[in-house]
Amino acid sequence: METIAKYPFKFYTRLTLPQLTGIYALNLKELLDGIKKSDDSIIYYHTHHYLIQHHYVVPDAPNDFAHWIIHTLGEKLLGEEISSIDMFNYNTMNDYKLELIKKLTAFISKDSKTRRVEMNERFNFMKAVTFVMSTGKEAYTLREFHDILKNITIFSVYYHFFESHFRLGSGLDDFSIWIKDELKLSDLAGKIQKLDPYSVTMDRLKEQIINYTEKYF
Amino acid sequence: MRSIKDYADIVGKETIEEIEKLGSYLSGKIIQNINSTPVGGGVAEILSRMVPLLKEVGVDARWDFIKGGEKFFEITKKIHNSLHGVEENISDDDFKHFLDVTEENLKEINLLGDIIFIHDPQPIGLIKAKDKNGFKEKKFIWRCHIDLSSANPKTFNFLKKFIEKYDYSVFSSPLFAKKLKIPQILISPSIDPLSDKNKDLPVETINEVLSRFKIDPERNIITQVSRFDRLKDPLGVIDVYRLVKKYVDCQLILAGGAAADDPEATEVYNEVIEKAGGDKDIFVLNLPPVSNIEINALQRASTVVLQKSIKEGFGLTVSEGLWKSKPVIASAVGGIPLQITHKYSGLLSRTIEGTALYAKQILQNPEYAKQLGENGHNHVKHNFLITRHLRDYILLFLKTGFREDTVYL
């Protein structure tokens, strides 16, 4: 007998518009200064829009900072360090930002002679103007959840999987919380929680969640 | 007439549903687009597709044009060139005439929109209406389709007085923007996958086009589609072809237009013909402006697509090539690096020799070529199709109603 949730899972979606801040960097020092001045929406943009824009590919650098450091400045060691900061270890954007500042400061203090790039290669600090919207779709059962998941955009998956991490401040995703609390499927919830969203594509992440749920029908 | 539903096969039903849902939040608002012409040029081309699609997703989008005589459009052409960094002599009298025509348009045009979306410099002065009674509540957006990075300071400062009165500005790339006091939103341009230039074509059509131009479909084809303009470096493309041909057999297509009223294009075309020197494997095709199917077929028949520009705007011909799953080698200028991630979704080059090296690599490694083409196709599918453009415009219009950076609809 299929479990019917008391409270449905309501699918939302999150869409963004990039906005220029007017701040830019031509070298590491300026990048560090820019990061120090950046609020959450700026850090969020540069750590997550890359995933959205390249959601069909596993990016070699999972954020704009690492991408610029590796591909424009040619600082591969630092780039790897920045790439490998596990965002899911931080419950707030500010905590992540402080770690970023720590790593950049340490690198600059050891070697301040890094490349200065031309204006057309600059790092432009941008922020995300975010729109959160209900898709109007609700699931009361695991099968309904599965069927809807197959027919929503990756922006919706993104909202419930990435955004939730910082929105809830608990490091959890909306999917596994609902599956555990409402459908009492702790094992499935645990599997979804363990997925590493920063090392697979968004499409693959969605596919993995769909595949997991199918095993619990 | 194409319908929004026709795009579902390409981008997914869920994407179209999301756009329709977003559109519903603009119910009751009139979005009035204003530019300088209903036909000709990139802006009119975009609006002719965008306005019907906006209407279809429930947005009351309108499209109006300003009026201006020959003198006005000569001046705005000079302004356009000057914003691109070309030396132009724009006199005080020219600026005065621009302002006079703006005043005439302000008297005649009915600014009925709740959101007034002004495209490019020609109608920019309509912002003066914002000071009038009854216009305070309206939102004005200026959409700049031009790369302002090397704009002439005098021309830019003349326009800046108007720009900074707008509520928002929109640029195609961060590299095209200037420091301004108003918010600057970034929206990339797009291609329409269902247009004649980009839609799937039957093999028969492709073969018919090749046969018409006597191009051998069995041999490698390197193609650059661009108007005959020195900034597109067609002569450099012939050098690339000659370097490649030393090692790998190939044909070269240079397809573009040379408008009769553009003396420089005719001059460049003649230089290209001369440089080709009667080589039977170089096809210099001076095509009329309506040759979209021909361009599409030539790109689809190509083994490699080049865009060896010296300077470029956004360079959407790159996305056109990528959309057809072709390996594209393009110069790392203008908006091209936004479309190509080097060695992943195409190749970025900086010299004739570098371009030739990459072309040889592609021609001799079909699997590598296929992978680049597939990745490029996916990148365009997710980032440079008209459906993404449509969604971004709706988000932009919605943003005008909120001060916050996070909007809960």
How would you describe what is shown here?
The complex is a heterodimer of chains A (217) and B (409). With 217 residues, chain A is an alpha+beta fold. Chain A has two domains: 14-127, no CATH class; 134-214, no CATH class. Chain A is built from ten helices and two strands; from the N terminus they run βαααααβααααα. Chain A has helices at 28-37, 40-53, 64-71, 76-83, 93-110, 142-150, 154-168, 174-181, 186-193, 202-214, and strands spanning 9-25, 123-139. In chain A, α6 (142-150) packs antiparallel against α10 and α8 (174-181) packs antiparallel against α9. In chain B, 43% of the residues lie in helices and 14% in strands. In chain B, α8 (234-245) links the parallel β7 (221-225) and β8. In chain B, strands 2-1-3-4-5-6 form a six-stranded parallel sheet, with helices on one face. A six-stranded parallel sheet of chain B has the order 9-8-7-10-11-12, sandwiched between helices. Chain B is globular. Chain B contains 15 helices and 13 strands. Chain A binds chain B through residues 13, 15-20, 22, 41, 53-57, 71, 119-120, 124, 126-136, 151-153, 155, and chain B through 12-15, 17-18, 21-22, 25, 149, 171, 174-175, 177, 179-180, 183-187, 341-342, 344, 375, 378-379, 382-383, 391-392, 395-396, 398-399, 405-409.
